[in-house]
Fold this protein.
Amino acid sequence: MRFAKKLLPVGAAVFALIFVLFTAQVYAQVPPTAEAAPGLINTGLVFENTLTYTPIQHDIISHVLTLGYAAQAAGFVYFVLSSNNIAPRYRLSSTLSAVVMVSAFLELFQLFQNWNNAFSYVDGLWRPTTTAFSNGFRYVNWSIDVPMLLLQLTVVLGLTRGRTIAYGTQFVIGGLLMIYTGYIGQFYEVTNIPLLFLWGAISSVFYVYVAYVVGRMINRSADQLPREPDNLPKAMRGVFWFILVTWTLYPIAYLIPAIAPTAWGAVTRQILYTVADITSKVIYGAILSYIARKRSEALEHEPALATARR
Ligand code: RET
């Protein structure tokens, strides 16, 4: 708790610094030239809008985005319908998963529509229109989902209120700084690759910090989970590695404009985002709900015992 209090002013100062730096950069931007066609200023910021796509490439992205939001809708049904199997003490885990599903569904559904409006089929290829496709929607969605996903861990670990606030302050501030610095960086993925790298590096510092806080929290508390019969401490430590692997797909997707600036690169990027979205939200939620149900069995919660398979 004391640590959390110390962290707040530091977090506020870093936020302020980033805001000032970003504002300075925006004002330093060269004004659009008179030759630029109306609409191109906007579309020129996002890598996906600078390319043309074959029907196959365009379709794959449409399908992959559909898979993304369909998985969130399916997850929502699962978390709501199975929440009764979890004892009230851990049930908030299912509620948080459901919150994540709804916000991700809305974001991904809107991104899918955005993709379909951003291109039109002319002379055998899908070409940019004046509507911009933007991955920026993803970042604003993460600012809801990342704190929810991490708070879910504190519920399943059964942390006290004090510890939840202490760890929560650290990873929520760290997580938001990671997202917003990355959000700033993605504005430069077409116009200024060094700035993309610079903001990506700043964001990565916060990512490492969040991973450290989460790793320490799990390591310190996992041994309080029942070892018999399902070795939950081991499962909980596994969750840490699962987070690390699935979350790391996001920075890889962020770097695609720098490492693979082609239409297939754009396809790869949307596939990476979708795999990351399904694993880090839906499958992660299912793993935590499994652990929460096992803990509920230990509490003799009747529906958990009734649905246990041995
Ligand atoms: C950014 C910018 C480049 C550097 C790093 C990034 C990390 C992003 C992460 C996002 C996780 C999102 C999740 C969403 C779930 O709903 C911002 C791409 C390190 C780790 C888990």
User: Anything to note?
Assistant: The CA atoms of residues 80 and 98 lie 7 Å apart. The longest strand covers residues 119-122. DSSP finds ten helices and two strands in the chain. The two ends are 41 Å apart (CA to CA).
